[in-house]
TrEMBL record:
This is (Fe-S)-binding protein. Residues 3-84, 127-222 form the Cysteine-rich domain. It comes from Autumnicola lenta. The lineage of its organism: Bacteria, Pseudomonadati, Bacteroidota, Flavobacteriia, Flavobacteriales. It holds the Pfam family CCG. PANTHER family: LACTATE UTILIZATION PROTEIN A, UNCHARACTERIZED PROTEIN YKGE. It comes from the Bacteria.
């Protein structure tokens, strides 16, 4: 299986260990991983800032780079959701249609495409899961509390395959962290208050490690925790599934 690895720009610049863990996870499950060096960004920051027209070239460039790959996988529900849902503003070339249809978040890919039933990973810590908004409500990787439906959590499914993990039950398990990309800049006070509330929930439930599929949310929460000089360690879900240790 030929899989293209798309590493979001902020992960590439600030959290390369997440990209490495995603690569290693794919290789452990017998995927031939292709990493186009010319890749940059999915264009979401530009779209969120009202500059989506200027981002159209980015959309086409990304689609061209990954057209030869059977699947495209990224460690970011936010970026994957943007590709699927917001690349409708450009001409629907074969490359664009392929990218929109065949791009998956790493957890979604493990569950829905590879259909894994076990992981060779151990993580003996009490872990709190932050369900990022795009993954939860955009991609249905978990069940939002406002929906009267039985959506199985793909995040929970893979985390429960990790040996020694202790998953915490949170008080408000599907609440937003307040990051929201450029929202954190435009509405700083609201964003920070929401982040503090999420950290408080994890702290109240004795969480040692806070994880999520979206490193952008974790980056926001990590910044607040550092300023408060308290809070759980921040680890992307790909690192946990890969068996990386603290």
């Amino acid at each position: 299986m030929k899989v293209g690895l798309f590493v979001p720009c902020y992960i590439d610049q600030f959290f390369p260990e997440v990209g490495i863990a995603t690569l290693q996870l794919l290789e452990k499950h017998n995927c031939e991983v292709i990493f186009p060096n010319q890749q940059t960004c999915c264009g979401q920051p530009m779209a969120n800032s009202g500059m989506e027209q200027e981002g159209k070239k980015i959309y086409h460039d990304l689609a061209y780079l990954f057209f030869s790959c059977e699947y495209i996988v990224a460690p970011s529900p936010s970026c994957v959701h943007h590709i699927r849902s917001h690349y409708d503003i450009v001409e629907q070339t074969e490359e664009i249609k392929h990218l929109r249809k065949q791009t998956f978040d790493i957890v979604e890919f493990l569950v829905d495409v590879l259909k894994i039933d076990h992981l060779e990973a151990s993580f003996p810590h009490r872990v709190g899961l932050h369900q990022s908004c795009h993954g939860l409500r955009g991609m249905h990787l978990g069940k939002p509390s406002e929906l009267m439906s039985n959506i199985p959590s793909k995040w929970d499914k893979v985390l429960k395959m990790v040996n020694g993990i202790d998953l915490a039950m949170l008080n408000r398990a599907d609440e937003c962290c307040g990051f929201g990309g450029t929202f954190a800049v435009a509405e700083e006070a609201v964003s920070v208050k929401m982040g503090k509330d999420r950290l408080a929930d994890h702290n109240q439930n004795n969480v040692e490690v806070l994880t999520s599929g979206d490193m952008s949310c974790l980056m926001h929460l990590q910044g607040i925790a550092k300023r408060q000089k308290s809070g759980p360690k921040i680890v992307h879900i790909a690192n946990i599934l890969n068996g990386d240790q603290l």
